[in-house]
Specification:
Helix content is about 60%, strand content about 5%. The chain is mainly alpha-helical.
Length: about 190
């Protein structure tokens, strides 16, 4: 019985090699695009396909990206709240008690006292106040990212400067050699100890 198990695996693997393994994924994608479900859903290489997908999803870069997106979304909400609730009200008071979110051009010709009334009436409006809010959001987020990357680059430069060099140039042929080398591997010249 034990001898038959490897043969069964070999038979499955040979089937997988003989058939086009990518055809399984192609059948699934075509069924999603065309709206029909494939009649043959199982493929001999499906376990390999699932194993590859699991390896891809568990890779560190994918997980780091997911965490970054979640933190970025939360940071975006914080910046939006900061702009809408803390930064824009004082700017509106300085500009003459104006709410920037209510600034708009009415394109339909009617008169409305606020943007909410114009939207409720279905009027065509050009909402430049909301655009100003979004531009300020963008500037704050980009400035915060700039400061963060600047600090990360400083930390990276600091660690590189503290590291001792591992290579030096041969004084005869100028090829890179290890610091502790006593003979050049390229020109075989005798070198003094570093």
């Amino acid at each position: 019985m034990k001898n038959q198990e490897p043969r069964a695996k070999q038979a499955r693997n040979s089937k997988c090699e003989k058939s086009n393994c990518s055809s399984f994924a192609v059948r699934i994608l075509n069924s999603l695009i065309l709206g029909s479900f494939p009649t043959k859903l199982y493929s001999p290489c499906m376990p390999n396909f699932l194993r590859e997908f699991k390896a891809f999803a568990a890779r560190g870069n994918v997980i780091d990206m997911a965490v970054g997106i979640a933190i970025g979304a939360a940071f975006g909400k914080i910046v939006s709240s900061f702009v809408d609730d803390i930064l824009m009200p004082p700017l509106g008071v300085v500009a003459g008690k104006v709410d920037f979110a209510d600034l708009y051009f009415n394109l339909s010709g009617g008169h409305y006292s606020s943007l909410a009334q114009a939207k409720a009436a279905g009027a065509a409006t050009l909402n430049y106040g909301l655009f100003v809010n979004q531009v300020i959001n963008f500037l704050i987020v980009s400035f915060a990212i700039f400061l963060m990357l600047r600090q990360i680059n400083k930390l990276k430069r600091g660690t590189k400067q503290n590291e001792a060099p591992t290579l030096r140039d041969c004084p005869f042929c100028l090829s890179a050699i290890p610091v502790k080398a006593t003979r050049c591997s390229a020109c075989t010249s005798q070198l003094s100890a570093a």
